[in-house]
Amino acid sequence: MTVTISRTQRRFVLPESELPTHYYNIAADLPVPQPPPLHPGTREPIGPEMLAPLFPMELIRQEVSTDREVEIPEEIREAYRIYRPTPLQRATALEKALDTPARIYFKNESVSPAGSHKPNTAIAQAFYNKREGISRLVTETGAGQWGSALAFACSLFDLEAKVFMVRVSYDQKPYRRSFIQSFGATVIPSPSTETNAGRAILAEDPDSPGSLGIAISEAVEEAGSRDDTKYSLGSVLNHVLLHQTVIGQEAMAQMEMAGDRPDVVIGCAGGGSNFAGIAFPFLRDRLSGASSTRFLAVEPASCPSLTQGEYRYDFGDTAGTTPLLKMHTLGNDFRPAPIHAGGLRYHGMAPMVSHLYDQGFIEARAYAQNTCFEAAVQFARTEGLIPAPESSHAIRAAIDEALEAREAGEERVILFNLSGHGHFDMAAYDAYLAGSLTDVEHTPA
Ligand SMILES: Cc1ncc(COP(=O)(O)O)c(C=O)c1O
Fold it and tell me: What would the 3-class secondary structure string for 364-415 be?
């Protein structure tokens, strides 16, 4: 007897030769230009000299560039080839479990050495700093993913790295610390006694769990005080979003291999970089009117900068040391609750994502953490991958879209970015499985 199994392709893999050669810069295609960063004193647009103590010239150039394409140097592409192109996967088992006519695809960024999308920009930033003679980088990390990525990238380009790690993550994730140290970087909990910003917070609250805003203040302060050191940011700024567009460019080619076009593209949003990475290359067609694809940014209910923040100029950090950025913000003094998706605990949203949201090209949704972990566990039990708590927000939204499609009897094509795995987040899964996770909703002041 012959049994016929209908076979649906699950993995769409590009050869190394298909690695993108350029980053895609959405600034070239905006119908309305993005509001510029302002000097906090004069409230005039800043020039490169204000950023020069913190960033190498090439990154400053990319920050303000309106060229559609920025060539990726061969040294960066060589490092990307350690893990790129990443696979696009069809979540057929999840579709079956949901009994949905929707087709769910995910771009798997968890296969990178750090376990997330973060090395896409860490490698680029380490390279450009090295090329301009910098020997040391300092940064912050929320969940530990960004610190891991920068530590890895600095080891590739022989740079020293120091990471201010948000205290709550430092305590919750000891193995992220070990990971960062294994690549030769130094990691210290933030707020720390090493900077004025850290000492001021500790004087007010000695048990402060820290936040990305505080850790950024510490890292910026240290970078500004040493000639051999520059600052490196893992999200929010245009050049970081730009580097992440390798994700969406590959995904476009892979969706073509699959013979599908996404009706909705989903990413979780902390500072906005993985969302931008998957969304912006697809958004180009939406901006030109060639597609009607929807774009959905998903954030935590406890830190809902897009869905509840104001769209105004604000500081990127807690101490108020950065230029003013026009963004959706809960206020730079907002202290996010210590939820488990540490990488989503940021008071603001990337100015470019905020601008496109304001212009109506992006939708946003906020979820509490228990419902995200429920989605994460369903995904793990069907697709075999334990997602990062941050990524579980995108999965929750993808599942809800698939359930809506079932109700509507519609063949919706859903694409989400699996921004990372959760192998260092098992304490969070323990808490969820034990029923001891609390949901924290933001209550506007
Ligand atoms: C796995 C993962 N996903 C998402 C994020 C959120 O950052 P962004 O919005 O910049 O992609 C982080 C941040 O640390 C992360 O580690």
Answer: EEEECHHHHHHHHHHHHHHHCCCECHHHHHHHHHHHHHHHHHHHHCCCCEEE
Helix (H) or strand (E) holding 287: helix 273-287
* Whether the CB of 348 sits within 6 Å of ligand 1: no
Cα(295)–Cα(382) distance, rounded to whole angstroms? 25
Coil, strand or helix at 51 = helix
CA 253 to centroid of ligand 1, rounded, Å: 23
Buried b (16+ CB within 10 A) or exposed e, 1-27: eeeeeeeeeeebebeeeebbeebbbbb
Radius of gyration of the chain measured on its C-alpha atoms = 21
Return the best residue to mutate from 111, 235, 241, 275 for the ligand 1 pocket (most ligand atoms within 8 A of CB): 235
Chain segment 150-209, per-residue pLDDT in tens? 999 999 999 999 999 999 889 988 999 999 999 999 999 999 999 999 999 999 999 999
Q: What is the pLDDT of residues 389-443, one digit of tens each?
A: 999 999 999 999 999 999 999 999 999 999 999 999 999 999 999 999 999 888 7
CB 146 less than 6 A from any atom of ligand 1: yes
- Quote the pTM value: 0.96
305 lines ligand 1 (CB under 6 A): no
184: left (phi over 0), alpha (psi -120 to 50) or beta: left
Task: Indicate the SS3 state at residue 74.
Answer: helix
Q: Judge whether 395 and 379 are in contact, CB under 8 Å.
A: yes
Beta carbons of 10 and 106 less than 8 angstroms apart = no
- How far does residue 410's CA lie from ligand 1's centre (Å)? 31
Amino acid at 431: A
DSSP for 186-232, written as a single string = EEEEES-SSSHHHHHHHHH-TT----HHHHHHHHHHHHHT-TTEEE-
Say if ligand 1 is within 6 A of residue 209 CB. Answer: no
Q: Is 235 in the pocket of ligand 1 (CB under 6 A)?
A: yes
Candidate of 86, 108, 110, 117 to mutate for ligand 1, largest count of ligand atoms within 8 Å of Cβ: 117
Closest CA to 176 of 145, 208, 219: 145
